[in-house]
Amino acid sequence: MSLLKTTATLIPKPSSTSTFDSLQCGTLLQSLTNSKSLTQALQLHAHVTTGGTLRRNTYLATKLAACYAVCGHMPYAQHIFDQIVLKNSFLWNSMIRGYACNNSPSRALFLYLKMLHFGQKPDNFTYPFVLKACGDLLLREMGRKVHALVVVGGLEEDVYVGNSILSMYFKFGDVEAARVVFDRMLVRDLTSWNTMMSGFVKNGEARGAFEVFGDMRRDGFVGDRTTLLALLSACGDVMDLKVGKEIHGYVVRNGESGRVCNGFLMNSIIDMYCNCESVSCARKLFEGLRVKDVVSWNSLISGYEKCGDAFQALELFGRMVVVGAVPDEVTVISVLAACNQISALRLGATVQSYVVKRGYVVNVVVGTALIGMYANCGSLVCACRVFDEMPEKNLPACTVMVTGFGIHGRGREAISIFYEMLGKGVTPDEGIFTAVLSACSHSGLVDEGKEIFYKMTRDYSVEPRPTHYSCLVDLLGRAGYLDEAYAVIENMKLKPNEDVWTALLSACRLHRNVKLAVISAQKLFELNPDGVSGYVCLSNIYAAERRWEDVENVRALVAKRRLRKPPSYSFVELNKMVHQFFVGDTSHEQSDDIYAKLKDLNEQLKKAGYKPDTSLVLYDVEEEIKEKMLWDHSERLALAFALINTGPGTTIRITKNLRVCGDCHTVIKMISKLTNREIIMRDICRFHHFRDGLCSCGGYW
DNA sequence: CTATTGACTA
Question: Nearest nucleotide (C1') to the CA of residue A94?
Answer without folding.
Answer: B2
